[in-house]
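#onboarding

Welcome to the new folks! Below is a worked example of what a typical request in this channel looks like: someone posts a single protein sequence, and someone else replies with the predicted structure as tokens. Don't worry about understanding the tokens yet, we'll cover that in week two.

Example request:
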Amino acid sequence: MKRKIEKGRTLLVDGPACVNLLAGKVEVFGAPLKTGAKTVIREGKRLAFKVKQTAHFDLILGENASVEEFEGNTIPDSWEKACRTTLALDEKPVIVVVMGEVDSGKTSFCTILANKALKEKRRVAIIDADLGQSDIGPPSTIGFCRLTLPISDPFLLKAENAYFIGTTTPSGALNKVIDKLGKMKDESLKKAVDFLVINTDGWVLGEEAVQYKLRLVKHIAPNVVVGIQRQNELTSILAALKGTKVLSIEFPSAIKKRDREKRKILRELGYKKYLKGAKMQSFPLKWVKVEGVPFGTGITLNERTLEKINAELGVSPLYCEEIPNLIVIVTEKNQRIEEEQIFNLAEELGKKVKLIEEGDEQGLLVGLHDEKENFLGIGVLNKIDYRRHIIQVYTPVTADIASVHVGQVKLDKQGKEIGLNPVFKDYYIIA
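Example response:
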């Protein structure tokens, strides 16, 4: 479909779509498009093509894609002012934390600000700490990348480094998110970055979310916090940030709210990107360290305790291990063990009992690291062989893997997200 857009107007395109600029002068989030350049827009994403000189487009629209044309610029004036204020700061480095609800335009603002800083010859980097809607790095990670050219979509960047959190929401891993984000900030500044933009998750409502965001800001110590507000949803957070420059900017009218399914589809594209070329690999557990599962972290049970377990449950476990205040028991599938049996066993042993069926681990997302704990990539846990002490992971990583960090996100065999599976939550390290 051909489309002519006059100077001073903006073309909004909702994906899935492909936009080819045939002629004219156009910008996307401050990044100039080259004539002949094709821009792919993912399902659930919207891009604004600002026409600076009459432009001719060739559009290929997928199912449920849409196109709208607007007079003028869809970027709010408050965004432009916030960018100017931030870029005018004398401090070096400049660290900017961007906050807002889900689908408030955080990624768009980060992209615009980073592009403007790049034009001013700053050494720019972005940290993406939005676990559920990450563009830099796989979902459930905190990703980092330096910019060398203006970008229209951070998803096109490949993470230089990432920290695997293992969940798509920070609420179950607050300490870990704050700690790893702080480390990522420190590491990025060692790479001579002098303008750092940090995107955060959309969890801002409720007292727990407020306290989390305040702790995060205190730990990061940014020069500026930019809050995108539709009404007053950030007031409690922004008002409490004493000693930090705060810029409150408006919610853009051109932002399109996405439902939960659309956000899930975007995450699945992220998994697909970082699992491309994956194959099944097996690792003896004596070769790799596995974190987040009940294997090798405790002590072996004595014969007397094993006899009590066999007698109460009526089955012989595949594996047992004792960690502080908890006994882990792995059984074969479909053993038909009742809750009352587990309760009685816990009473007899004087400890909480966690029962796991063999195969419960299948589909869990994992982060893979080298011996220095550098992030290598992600994989999907296929199996823990408790008899042979082998772990099977579906991953494209070919470098030497020293540790496997097991998360709570579960995928099916087609890479579709099933949801969060807390099967190993008792052992999941979130501190």
